[in-house]
Design goal:
36% of the residues lie in helices and 28% in strands. It contains 5 helices and 9 strands. Mean pLDDT is 80; it is low at 1-7 and 204-216. InterPro entries: HATPase_C_sf (IPR036890), Slr1658-like (IPR058084).
Length: 216
C-alpha cells in the first residue's frame, strides 16, 4: 500500500495530479495499443480488455528476463501487469466520451527495473471537475479505508460496482499513480492516467504470492 499526497501543478490548459512524469517514447522500449471508435462504441469493448491486458503482460515477460528466476515470480509479474492494464483500460473505456471522434490509447514502457503505464482517453466536460475532486480524495486518504467505504456504498445500491478500479490498484500494489489533464478547447478534455512500479523485488512464498513492488 502507498499513501500518496496529492499535488496539482500546471495552467488552465494542462494540470498534473499525483506522481506524474512524462517519459519520452523515443528513449525507452514501449508498446502502444490504440482503440479507435468504429460502428461499435468503445464502451462496449470491455470484453476485449482481458485480451489486450494478456498481450501486454506477455510482452513484458519476453523482455523482462531474470536468469534462474523461480517460475512463481515471473508468473506473479505477469498477473500484476495484466491486472493493472485491465483495470486502466476498463476505467478509460467506461468514461471515454463517445461524442468525440477520438481513440483510447494505452502505452506500456518497460524500463530497466520498472514498468510504467500511460492510458489516455477523452472525457466529457461535465465529468472533469468531479474526477479531479475524486483524485484529490484518493491521493490524500488511506486507500484501504476508501476501498471499504466504497464497498459499503456499492452494497447499499444493488448493481452499483463503480469506484473500485484505482483503489484496487493502490490496495493490492504499492503503485504510484498520477494524472494529466489537457484541454485543447473548452469542449475538448483529455486525461492521461499514469501507473508506475518496480517489478524486480517480488518474493514467492510457498504457494502464495507476496508482492514487494517498490514504487517510484
Amino acid at each position: 500500500m502507498t499513501i500518496q499526497t496529492c499535488f496539482m501543478i500546471g495552467d488552465e490548459n494542462v494540470q498534473y495530479f499525483g506522481h506524474y512524469v512524462d517519459i519520452d517514447p523515443k528513449e525507452t522500449e514501449y508498446l502502444m495499443i490504440s482503440f479507435s471508435p468504429t460502428n461499435i462504441p468503445i464502451q462496449q469493448r470491455w470484453r476485449n480488455n482481458g485480451l489486450s491486458a494478456d498481450f501486454i503482460a506477455g510482452y513484458m515477460l519476453n523482455f523482462f528476463v531474470v536468469d534462474n528466476e523461480p517460475k512463481a515470480i515471473s508468473k506473479n509479474r505477469f498477473v500484476a501487469v495484466k491486472y493493472i492494464a485491465n483495470e486502466l483500460l476498463e476505467n478509460a473505456m467506461k468514461f471515454h466520451s463517445e461524442c468525440k471522434n477520438s481513440s483510447v490509447t494505452i502505452r506500456f514502457h518497460l524500463l530497466e527495473d520498472q514498468v510504467v503505464f500511460y492510458v489516455r482517453n477523452n472525457i466529457d466536460e461535465n465529468r472533469v471537475a468531479v474526477f479531479k475532486e475524486y483524485i484529490t480524495k484518493l491521493l490524500n486518504a488511506n486507500p484501504h479505508d476508501l476501498y471499504f467505504q466504497q464497498m459499503e456504498i456499492n452494497a447499499a445500491h444493488a448493481g452499483h460496482h463503480s469506484g473500485l478500479g484505482f483503489l484496487s490498484i493502490l490496495c493490492d500494489y504499492p503503485a504510484r499513480l498520477g494524472w494529466k489533464f489537457e484541454s485543447d478547447c473548452p469542449q475538448m478534455h483529455w486525461v492521461t492516467t499514469r501507473v508506475a512500479l518496480f517489478l524486480w523485488e517480488i518474493q514467492a512464498k510457498q504457494n502464495e504470492t507476496v508482492f514487494f513492488l517498490r514504487s517510484v
